[in-house]
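Subject: design request, 291 residues
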């Protein structure tokens, strides 16, 4: 079973009311129900399968992000503080450790991958207490890409896997927002990507989403709301929110680097900065942001 995310596609709802009065509707609290299944906890190895060509700098941005999730010495707000929200979910905290990295720069399965290809790639290397992440380059088309920006799932042998694609050349308005103008909704100016790479900085947002989902709902019976076939999970339940005051088409108030003008909300290792999406906090039943 795989879970899909389109992080930048926002639904805009217009309410028609009589001009003489307005009605305030109190929204019910957002609740992700726990379905009594296993969560990933303890030391979890993240193996990276680089499918297609990524530059060394692009790979370092993503590896640094994963390492940042356990780097408690970073200035606040930090990527590690963001990840600690997952420890509030039943089952305890998961510490993500970068494991094996496999380079497939010769496109062994071609430049168009179907879902079975993603599962096959995600099953190598298969091991307990791990998440195998398939990262596809900007010139690789994936079945359903742009309708979804990333997925996670598990095999019959209960190995967790995930996929995230580089959307720079295919659908940045859907999968790299807010670093690119959205394909739908208000056409607000895009934010400046913190690492200077719209495609890879967009991948960080989607990678953060699938990793949080893989830890809190790895086998389709953890935390989620809605149908199991299309669940709202830890981060996908908070789509489009990056800072306080967010609303459809506006990511919220975030920090801006005075030198580069880049937008971010989290510090990481090696001086890195990232823009991370809001995550549902089970203690407050709300989408929690770093700023």
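Subject: RE: design request

Done. Sequence follows.
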């Amino acid at each position: 079973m795989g879970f899909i995310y389109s992080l930048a596609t926002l639904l805009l709802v217009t309410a028609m009311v009589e001009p003489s009065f307005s009605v305030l509707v109190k929204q019910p609290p957002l609740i992700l129900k726990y379905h009594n299944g296993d969560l990933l906890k303890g030391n979890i190895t993240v193996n990276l399968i680089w499918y297609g060509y990524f530059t060394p700098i692009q790979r370092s941005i993503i590896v640094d992000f994963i390492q940042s999730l356990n780097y408690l010495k970073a200035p606040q707000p930090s990527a590690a503080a963001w990840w600690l929200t997952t420890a509030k979910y039943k089952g305890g905290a998961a510490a993500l450790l970068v494991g094996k990295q496999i380079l497939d720069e010769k496109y062994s399965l071609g430049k168009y991958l179907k879902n079975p290809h993603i599962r096959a790639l995600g099953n190598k290397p298969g091991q307990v207490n791990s998440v195998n992440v398939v990262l596809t380059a900007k010139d690789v088309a994936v079945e359903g890409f742009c309708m979804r920006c990333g997925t996670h799932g598990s095999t019959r042998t209960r190995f967790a896997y995930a996929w995230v694609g580089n959307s720079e050349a295919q659908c940045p308005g859907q999968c790299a927002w807010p670093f690119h103008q959205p394909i739908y909704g208000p056409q607000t100016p895009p934010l400046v990507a913190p690492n200077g790479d719209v495609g890879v900085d967009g991948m960080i947002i989607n990678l953060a989403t699938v990793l949080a989902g893989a830890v809190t709902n790895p086998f389709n019976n953890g935390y989620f709301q809605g149908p199991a076939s299309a669940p709202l999970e830890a981060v996908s339940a908070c789509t489009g929110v990056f800072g306080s005051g967010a609303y459809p088409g506006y990511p919220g108030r975030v920090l801006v680097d005075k030198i580069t003008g880049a937008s971010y909300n989290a510090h990481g290792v090696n001086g890195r900065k990232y823009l991370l999406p809001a995550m549902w906090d089970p203690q407050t039943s709300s989408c929690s942001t770093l700023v």
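Residues 198-216 form the longest helix (19 residues).
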